[in-house]
Amino acid sequence: MSGAPFGARLTEAVAARGSLCVGIDPHPGLLDQWGLPRDVSGLERFALTCVEAFAGDISVLKPQSAFFEAYGSRGVAVLERVIADARSAGALVLLDVKRGDIGSTMAAYAQAYLSDGSPLAADAVTVSPYLGFGSLDPAIEEAARTGRGLFVLARTSNPEGAGVQHAKVSGVDGVGGVGGITVAQSIVDQAAAHNAGASPLGSIGLVVGATVGRTDLDLSALNGPLLAPGLGAQGAGPADLAAVFGDVLPAVLPASARDVLRHGPDVTALRSAALRVRDELAAAAR
């Protein structure tokens, strides 16, 4: 991938199309709701309808890889087409894969999702740092080389995450240095170090749930994007975003899936729902 790095391309896309990120989540329940079969044909119709509805107007589309992988190789082939078609229509694609591993395995994931020429390469992917932030180095290096981005899980909204993310560490990755910071804050700080000096925005983002409420995270030095899942059906609204993110709200990508997708399968209704949410976010940010 040539041209500007992901942080710059994202900044340009948000300025032109707004900050909303729409998830493409072909959940079996949504296939039922749309009157589609729970097979690859239903998956394909669902996913490509979403691309048709959103890719021309929304800045970022976020396919959830697991719902495609569930159908095996044919499902992954549909995902490859979704990525290609959405990008051709002008949307950035953030592939939600949450990969995290070490050494050569992490390098292989980086090749699959971040390397030029891979049919699964997106503009950015989600990754998990819970084998140590340094385990992400192969993905960070490949993303920098190809102009792509990462969104690193930091403070997620699932209740199971709190025991790990709120735990205190003795320093970066728990080794020496500053005492008393949370695991989540150590992730923020290490992402910020990679983004230092980038303009207009770094390419290493974080995932912070829109439903987590007010946190003790200091995000002021991140200089990168913040993916905020949970808008709409999970209970978060524009006012909650301001409460959670404060001064860094301009860097936030609020993500909504079910609240928009429930308006399908009609393309016009889907597009109208997404544009309505996008405009509500813009109004709340003024």
From TrEMBL:
The positions flagged as active site in the entry are K98
Q: Does the keyword Lyase apply?
A: yes
- Could you tell me which residue ranges the Orotidine 5'-phosphate decarboxylase domain spans? 19-273
Task: Write out the GO MF terms.
Answer: orotidine-5'-phosphate decarboxylase activity
Q: What is its EC number?
A: 4.1.1.23
Q: Which domain of life is it from?
A: Bacteria
A Gene Ontology biological process noted in the UniProt record is: 'de novo' pyrimidine nucleobase biosynthetic process
Question: Would you tell me the protein name for this molecule?
Answer: Orotidine 5'-phosphate decarboxylase
Q: Which organism is it from?
A: Actinokineospora cianjurensis
